[in-house]
Amino acid sequence: MQNYIDPKAKLGEKTKVGWFTVIGEDVQIGTECNIGNNVTIYSGTKIGDHVRIDDNTIVGKNPMRAARSATTKEQELAPTKIGDNCIIGTSVVIYRGAALGKKVLVADLSTVRENVTIGDFTIIGRGVAIENFCRIGSYCKLETNVYITAYSELEDYCFIAPCVATSNDNYMGRSKERFKHYKGVTVKKGGRIGLNATILPGKVIGEDSQVAAGAVVTKDTPPKKIVMGAPAKVLKDVPNDQLLENQ
Question: Are the C-beta atoms of residues 167 and 134 closer than 8 Å to each other?
Answer without folding.
Answer: no
